Amino acid sequence: MTEVKKTAAGGAISRRTALKGLAAAGATGAGLGAMPGFVPYIQAQSSAPIKVGFQVHRTGIGAAYGRWYDRTTLAAADLINEMGGINGRPVEIVAEDDGTDPKRGAEVVEKFASQLGCDVGFGTLFSHVVMGSAPRAGELKLPYFVVSEGHHVASGALNRWTIQPGICDVKSQVLAMAPFVSKNLGKKATMIFPDYAFGHDHRDFFTAAMEAQGAEVIKHIAIPPTETSYSKYFPQIPRETEVLYHVMVGPGVLTFVKELGEFFGPSHPPIFGFLDSLEAVDLNSPGLEFLDGTYFWEGMPRYLQSDAPDPVKFYRDRVGVDDNGASASDPKDVSTFAHMFGCWETLFVMKKGMEAAGYQTTADRQKLIEAVEAMEEMPFGDEHPQGRKVFNGKTHQVFGPQYISKVEGGKLVVQAETTAEDSFYPDEVDYTTQSF
Amino acid sequence: MTGAAKPVGLHALVLAILLALHFVLPDYHHGVLARVLTLATFALGYNLMFGYTGLLSLGHALFFAAGLYGLGMPMQHLGWSAEVALPFGIAFAALLATGVGALALRTQGVAFMIVTLMFAQAGFLTLLYFNEFTRGDEGFVIAQEARSLFGISLADADARYIAALILFAVAMIATLILVRSPAGRVLVAIRENEERARMLGYDVARYKLLAIVASGAMCGAAGAAYGLLFGYVGATFASVQYSILPLLWVLLGGAGTVLGPLIGTAFMTYLIDLGSGLTDAYMLLAGAALVLLTLFAPAGLLGEVRKRWAGWLP
Amino acid sequence: MDFGPYLVFASLEGAVLAATLSLTALGLSLVFGVMRVVNVAHGEFFMLGAVAAWFVSALGGEALGLPAWAGFAAALVLAPAAVGALAWAADRAILARVGYDPERTIVATIGLLYILQQLTLMGYGPEARPVEPPFNARIALPWPEWGADGFAWTWPWGFGTTSYKLFVIVAAAALLMAVWAVLSRSRFGLIMRATQYDRETAQAFGIPVGKVYAWTFALGAALAAAAAVLIVPIQQAHYLMGGDPLLLSFIVVIIGGLGSLRGTVLAALLIGMSDGVISVFFSPTLAKILATLLVALVLVFRPQGLFGAKTA
């Protein structure tokens, strides 16, 4: 390992000088400049677009989410460009599939930073991809705006370059739900969740939150992530259960909900679920009739509510979502409405941050992070249609409203809305004290 | 011995080219190649068992993950330094390979494939089950400050590349020495005709176990290095997909060739990377390429070269 | 739920899995036994069967206004036929050309797996889509109990099944009988078995081995597709659903012993039922770990499979 030092630091020819030499050769017509990925560094022109590297799940297990993250992101970028862009420059979305894989995710971040000349990285949803990519973003000093709802950012596991300003994390979502569940639905809860990190976050945070309310979780049922049929686990639900809490993700969720209905038949305890279970799934699918009368957490109401304010309608129109939360051009193409607003809002936060920082070139990346860290209040409006938000610059995490809806006649109707303050919890990290 | 001059010269040349590339590659490809070299070490380890000994395992993700977690867990939970955790990760993978080998080697052929697959699947599920410590599928990040060896930060692009190159060079030279040694020739003899090797008086079981332990250690080294160089430890690397990938890399490059794993890994990586720039359906391109290769280059890229022009390739 | 009903309940769930698994695994086993190749894309044929069932029933329901049962019945015929035809073409275009070499076939079918998955993602989309079952009445089951006042039937909470799940078990059993009849009674079955025993001799006797292989490959894929059509009203069609059936089928084929129809069915029963029953006793993920290790150890100590005779 000692020769590392020699080559890296004390060698006669360093990597930098060699690169410069070659770049010069390329510029003088040696042809190397024409190699893909070998573009000599060009200072961004004032009219050149700001490039947003968009890490999108187009293939792999996250593909259903990826499609709608894609549409929401493009809609927001179009709007920003209509509004005159950022600092007078248009925004260009540079999308690249990460296969919902942490290794490929890291490669894509490298590609954004080193080859495609992106100003920022953006848009990752699945938390293992965030975890796999964030270290590289930190090393490459690429501002990395994730839209993942994971607790990873606020837990302090990541770095100063990684930030989640457009979607609330799972811990705050769960904290905000516990009072409603314990007061209105029941004091003895049974939880069903997938046996991996996301499910365990729900288990830990909700159990603690229920206890803080004087209620309790009497049974945890962890379902193996490779499972495709669920009925055999339901007999473990204790008879005295007053409320059933479920959160499942992945392609098996419809089976899960259907089999739950078949297990209970006509009489079941009140049921509270996270809509993660049914994102991109039509509530009127065969077998889901039994959900009528059950409750769901929603990040943002999927069905257009009768009293919806204008910014909500504006957002729905721009993204191309009909009153039932499906694509305006194909009613069978149901959106991931409870999460995708995060892409829209994150892009507007980025815009604000770049404006505040006077962002011009990639040399201003650190200023951009500092500008976002300085943000606090984010008022409800076209830029934040999901609701008013409060950003915590220390933990790099945003807090906002959560919605509790009931299925009535095959539609989700909002019953209660919590505020950003309801979802606060003590800081677990202060990223602003970390070096860049 | 004149027979050794050509291969030794060739492999020295390859290492020299890889070192030269360090100075001239653009940033992006420099980073990609560092990853390719790390994963090619994984493929080299796989090749030792599959290419030279003829043992087709479908569970090598287990050994890669053993190195990855063997390094990552003590660093994360016990505060070990990388200097201690790295050899521990490799030793842990070798130990696991010994156990798996002792059991799995009682089977042959397809049963061997399934048994290795099952052990790897059990390993993957175990990582999920002990989520409290492993963070399951989400995995964990190894802090940047901890990722240094002897005072050199491996989060630095230059150091990372050189470290990956050293790792690969050590694994490649070890493979080269092994396959040219008498023990290596016994392994090939087992691949070609196990019965005959046994009748010649070789302790076939012992040699096979040797192959699986060496292979496990090499794959574990690649896994541990991956964690150290790229800072992420996650259960995805223990999933079936990462058992199939080394098989693909080796078959593409040429099973039973020393340089094949590197060529296969680089080929597949760039196929996906360049394909991804052209179309979302890059897996379609990858799939089509695999089918075409089996149709027209069944011995793998380097294997075809050896067959047609360069029979002396090791 | 009490222990007794729970055990029966879990076994019933296990039986549904066992039913579809035995069909899927039988397909793999035939290909493996006759052609001596491992078809890694077998799970994708299963997935295609489910996706085709969705297309047929959706088309039948929307375009032609057929009732759910008619759409389902059409899917049960058309989906396996279409998938079988695709497999036949894949055999002719790829497997025949690599000469059924074991290693090259593995790589080629991995390539095929990528291609089929990606094409399905592009043509069908990333969503999980349900197929409406032809009928699906919930059946509450009684449980015998000897209480203080003698014998009585009770109706434990949640103890029941659906008519469709029972249908899956019956339909899978009927299909298995049909396959068994074809293999043991028909001329095609005879030719297939002859090819399996000794390819060279079969060829010498004028059996067109190439054709037999293509039809075997098609039949294997069609069986997987049929299993998927049966299961898709319970689960949903999704482009990544092929992984699990492939793994499970592998296990079943090996445990059951190569090319043994009886062994395959018994092993499917064993795996399916134990999957249900073990979940009664252990926490779910731990149960999966134990079951996986158990399979591995069975193979280690009985490499010819539980039900297979020792073969060379």
From TrEMBL, chain A:
It comes from the Bacteria. Keywords: Amino-acid transport, Signal, Transport. GO terms for biological process: amino acid transport. This is Amino acid/amide ABC transporter substrate-binding protein, HAAT family. The keyword Ribosomal protein does not apply. Residues 49-410 form the Leucine-binding protein domain. Transmembrane segments: none annotated. PROSITE patterns: TAT. InterPro entries: BCAA_transport (IPR051010), Leu-bd (IPR028081), Peripla_BP_I (IPR028082), TAT_signal (IPR006311), TAT_signal_bac_arc (IPR019546). Belongs to the leucine-binding protein family.
UniProtKB/TrEMBL annotation, chain B:
One of its GO terms (cellular component) is plasma membrane. It is found in: Cell membrane. GO terms for molecular function: branched-chain amino acid transmembrane transporter activity. Its main location: membrane. It comes from the Bacteria. The keyword Transmembrane applies. The chain crosses the membrane at residues 50-72, 84-104, 110-130, 161-179, 209-235, 247-270, 282-302. The keyword DNA damage does not apply. It is a multi-pass membrane protein. Keywords: Cell membrane, Membrane, Transmembrane, Transmembrane helix. This is Amino acid/amide ABC transporter membrane protein 2, HAAT family.
UniProtKB/TrEMBL annotation, chain C:
It is a multi-pass membrane protein. GO terms for cellular component: plasma membrane. CDD domains: TM_PBP1_LivH_like. The keyword Glycoprotein does not apply. Keywords: Amino-acid transport, Cell membrane, Membrane, Transmembrane, Transmembrane helix, Transport. Its main location: membrane. It holds the Pfam family BPD_transp_2. Belongs to the binding-protein-dependent transport system permease family. LivHM subfamily. This is Amino acid/amide ABC transporter membrane protein 1, HAAT family. It comes from Albimonas donghaensis.
